[in-house]
Amino acid sequence: MKFPSEPFKIKVVEPIRRTTPVERDRLLRDAGYNLFRIPAESVYVDLLTDSGTSAMSDSQWAGLMLGDESYAGSKNFYHFEETVRSIFGYTHVIPTHQGRMAENLLFSTVLKPGMCVPNNIHFDTTRANIEHQGAEATNAVVKEAYDPADESPFKGNMDLGRLEEIIHRVGRDRIPLVLLTITNNSGGGQPVSMENVRETRALLNRYEIPLFFDACRFAENCFFIKEREPGYADRSILDIARELFRYGDGCTMSAKKDGLVNIGGFLSLNDERWVQDITNMLILVEGFPTYGGLAGRDLEAMARGLREVLDEDYLSFRVGQVRYLGELLDHAGVPILKPIGGHAVYLNAKDFLPHIAQHEFPAQSLAVALYRDFGIRGVEIGTVMFGKKETGTGRVLHPKLEMVRLAIPRRVYTNMQIAYVAESIIDLYRRRERIRGLTMTYEAPVLRHFTARFEELDRTAHIQPVIS
Ligand code: P71
After folding, report:
1. Hey, which of 13, 302, 324, 367 has its CA 20 to 30 A from 45?
2. pTM score, whole prediction
3. Tell me: the pLDDT tens digits for 322-332?
4. Residues in the ligand 1 pocket, defined by CB under 6 Å
C-alpha cells in the first residue's frame, strides 16, 4: 500500500467539538491572533505540535499502573535506564521532565559566554538555551535546506565545509560540542543521512570536538535512512539507531516526540566530568537523579514508548500519514516544502501568500485564516518565531523560510480527519488573495511567539469558507 492504514484499533475516544467561524473569529480577537492563546477545546484538528500529543498504547497505560513512586531507586528508573542504554548506547542516563531541561542542564554546564554551538538548524528552545548562556547558536545546514522545492533526500545534513569554516573562525576551544538535530525540525522535519553523521564525526575527530544529537525524532530519521540510503533497506530500525548514536558522544531528547509520551525527556552521555556537574544541577532544579522531574509511572511509559517507536509497521504508517497529507496538497498545487518531512507538512507561506510582505507575517496570517475558517490549528515557523532585531541597527532580520507547520500527533487522528485538513487547505488556497497581513502589537524579549499579540491590517477582507 502506498499509504499504510492504521496498525492499531481505537480503544478509547475523546470527543472533539466543532465551532463556527464566527465563534472562532471572536476567540482569535481575544487571543490577539496568537494560536498558542486559543483554548484547545475550540480546535477541531490540532496540528500545533506533535510534541506531547501522542496517544499512548494500552501497554503504556498499563505501565502507568506499575509506577514505583519511591523517591530514590524506583524500579521504573532502572527499566528506563536499561532501555535508553540499549538504544542510544551512552553510559549515563539523566531523566528530565522534557527536552528543554536536558538542553538547559547540558548548556549551563558546558557553555561559557563567547562560546559557540553549531547545529544543522537549532530549534527555538535550543537556540534560546544557548543564547541564555551568552553563547552563540550557529546553523550550518546544507544550502538545499533553504530551497523549499529542492527534493534532495537528506536536507537535514550538515554542510561540512561550513562547519569547518565555523571551527576555524571561532576556534576549537570555543566550541565545546557540535549538535545534529534528527530530524531537522526547523528545516522541515528533514532527515540526516548516516553518511553525513559519519563524516561529521570524522571531521570533529580531527579537532577533538564532541558530537551530540538532538534526538527528539530519531526513529523517524532512522526510518528515512532505511528507506532512502543505500545499504540500510534490510537493517532493523534499532540496528540503524545503534549505529547512528555510536558516532556521537551523547544526546538530548524530548521524549514527547519519538518517546510516544505526553511528558518526559532525558540527557544521555559518556563524559564523566560533565555528568557530575549536570547531576548536581539536576538535583538543584529538577529532582533526584532517579526521577528527574517525573513520576515513576512516567518513566515506565517512556521506557515502553521508546521500544514501540522502533516498530516498522508503526513508522511506515506514521511517515505515510504525513506523506498522505502532503501529497493531497501537492497534487492540488498548494505550495509545500519538499520532500515531505517525517512529522509534519510545512506550507510555504511565501508562495501561498505572495501578496503579503514578510514584515506583515504571511505565515502567521495563513495560520490565523486556517483556524478561523476551519478550526484547524497549525503553527507559524517563520518571522514570528525566528525574526530578530539586528543589534546596533535595530533592523529586523527575516528568516529565509516562512512556513506554517502542520505537525501530526502520533496515533491520534484518522486518515479521514487528515483528508478534511487537506480539503480545507485546498479551499483556502483557492481564496488566498483575500487573506490579509498582521501587525505585531506586543512581543516578549525571548521566545516571543508564545505570547506575541497581533492586530489585523484589514478586517474588511474577512473571508468566508466554502466548506466548514
Ligand atoms: C515542536 C516542539 C515543541 C514546541 C516548542 C516550542 C514551540 C512550539 C512547540 C520541541 C523541541 C524540538 C527539538 C528539535 C528540542 C525541543 C524541545 N519541539 N529540540 O516541534 O522540536 O523539547 O518541548 O520537550 O522542551 O512542536 P521540549
Report:
1. 302
2. 0.95
3. 999 999 999 99
4. 49, 51, 98-100, 123-126, 181, 185, 214, 216, 254, 256, 265, 379, 407
